[in-house]
């Protein structure tokens, strides 16, 4: 009888070089992108922190030229953020000064444009009431356009107009603009004085 030669099956063992190549590919495809993403996030966070320190804390700049000679008198108000960080303006508060308030310049209110533009919010301020309500003229106000709150930034200022409804003759008042940014609350005082932190200026005159 003729015996057939037996064939043996052998299992191939990966060479150390192949195993090393697989680990290298895994590191390249998974670990390196992950490390890159972590490094990018860290650099971005550090840059944001450094920029906040350089640019300073959030704040609001408010300016008005005072009441105009319109009927009713109007008071234009321009608001702008001091830094690149956007600020949410939450409201404008009008406070009537006592009769003993220092007299301001007795000249007539400045003349100016008596009508707002389509994109300029207009608010009624009734000086005969206490506290003075500041409400949008539009019956159905559009958010961020004709009513509070709205957002301002350094490159995106906002102009609004207060219509001063007559109160008692020679009613004097000051404004406080309130804002919030990242949970930080603040306000700006407008009282016909250079210092926006106090309300010891002569105020503005709203003739009745």
Describe the structure.
The chain is α+β, with helices and mostly antiparallel strands. It is built from 1 helix and 10 strands, in the order H-E-E-E-E-E-E-E-E-E-E. The strands form 2 sheets. A 5-stranded mixed beta sheet has the order 1-2-7-4-5, with no helix packed on it. Strands 3, 6, 8, 9 and 10 form a 5-stranded antiparallel beta sheet that branches. Strand 4 and strand 5 form a beta hairpin. The radius of gyration is 33 Å and the shape is elongated.
Keywords for this structure?
five-stranded mixed beta sheet, 208 residues, 10 strands, five-stranded antiparallel beta sheet, single chain, alpha+beta, elongated, 1 helix
Annotation field: number of helices: 1
Oligomer: single chain
Q: Give the low-pLDDT segments.
A: none
Strand arrangement across the biggest beta sheet: 1-2-7-4-5
Q: Structural class, please?
A: alpha+beta
Shape: elongated
Largest pleated sheet: 5 strands, mixed
Q: Over all CA atoms, what is the radius of gyration?
A: 33 Å
């Amino acid at each position: 009888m003729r015996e057939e030669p037996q064939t043996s099956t052998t299992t191939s063992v990966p060479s150390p070089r192949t195993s090393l190549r697989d680990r290298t590919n895994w590191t390249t495809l998974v670990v390196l992108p992950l490390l890159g993403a972590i490094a990018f996030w860290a650099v971005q966070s550090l840059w944001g922190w450094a920029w906040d320190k350089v640019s300073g804390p959030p704040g609001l700049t408010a300016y008005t030229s005072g009441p105009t000679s319109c009927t009713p008198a109007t008071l234009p108000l321009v608001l702008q953020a001091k830094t690149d960080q956007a600020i949410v303006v939450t409201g404008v508060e009008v406070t009537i000064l006592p009769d003993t308030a220092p007299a301001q310049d007795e000249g007539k209110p400045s003349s100016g444009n008596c009508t707002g533009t389509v994109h300029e919010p207009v608010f009624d301020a009734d000086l005969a009431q206490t506290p003075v309500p500041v409400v949008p003229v539009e019956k159905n106000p559009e958010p961020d356009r004709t009513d509070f709150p709205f957002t301002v930034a350094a490159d995106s200022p906002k102009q609004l107009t207060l219509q001063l409804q007559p109160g008692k003759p020679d009613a004097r008042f000051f404004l406080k603009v309130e804002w919030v940014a990242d949970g930080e609350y603040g306000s700006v005082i407008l009282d016909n004085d250079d210092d926006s932190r106090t309300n010891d200026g002569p105020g503005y005159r709203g003739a009745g």
